[in-house]
Amino acid sequence: MSDDVARAAGVLRAGGLVAFPTETVYGLGADASNASALRRLYSVKRRPADHPVIVHVGTAAQLDDLAADVPELARILARACWPGPLTLVVRRRPGAVADEATGGRDTVGVRVPDHPLARALLDAFGGPVAAPSANRFGKVSPTTARHVRDDLDGDVDVILDGGPCDVGVESTIVDVTGDAPVVLRVGGVSEARLTDLLSRAPDRLTEGEVAAPGTLPSHYAPNARVELVRAQDIPARVASLRASGKHVAVLDAPGDAAEYARVLYARLRDADARHVDVILATVPEDDGSIGAAVRDRLERAARG
Prior knowledge:
The protein is α/β, with parallel strands linked by helices. The protein has 10 helices and 13 strands. The chain has helices at residues 3-13, 35-45, 63-66, 72-81, 116-125, 145-152, 191-198, 234-243, 257-273, 291-302, and strands at residues 18-20, 27-31, 54-56, 86-91, 107-111, 129-130, 158-159, 172-175, 182-185, 203-204, 225-228, 248-251, 278-281. It has a 10-stranded mixed sheet, sandwiched between helices. Strand 9 (182-185), helix 7 (191-198) and strand 10 (203-204) form a beta-alpha-beta unit. Helix 1 packs across helix 5 (116-125). The longest helix is centred in the last third of the chain and has 17 residues, at 257-273.
């Protein structure tokens, strides 16, 4: 175990906050059983108290420590997708985590991250770590340690630097507490993959009442205004905006949806660093791939 990881695990035990990398985005971690640590996390994030956070564990076996009456469907998804960018919403075991981690709900979102530094931290800590993205609530998620420092420096006790995140958008959230699986947030595991594993297409409920992190109508928003445009309309729109004195950036979709996901948040943050007024973004198709997650994030950013 590295000295940095050992120190970070000690900070968590003492009720502190640790930012750490996952394959999706950087998380802001607190001991999931420590109510005061979680209240500080919510305060630093400026996050509404009724908005649940995801609880991270080091192994799939720990799901039974947190959940009551785990359905076979959850075990199928966990075996196939953990470690990885999938969060399972399950009935929580009484006393397993503090109420503050779940927004007062009787369910909890659990995942096993696929990043060596995150896994080392979770192994060293030994218990569940509640960790939303390491940024102010509603803003663009961080995919590098520099992004975390830009947002939260001074408000977090330790920042573990694990390099840029490989996936770049948050985990897919699937509620398995009902009769049928429901996707509450599209993300790093595609709906096509879920369909293969479940032998049926899951339902999707990603709008409306807050049921999962990142599902408010306006979210992931940079300071610049985001406009969604077709590729063929970009030149005319750029000309029009510049004629009105606006500083414009164009976010072109790479040919590969996975690459778009990897670079999305970094490019939104770069536009803000250049004090852009308007970001013009093309969106991938909502075709069951990770491109659906990119589209979802851009649509929410455009409502900001």
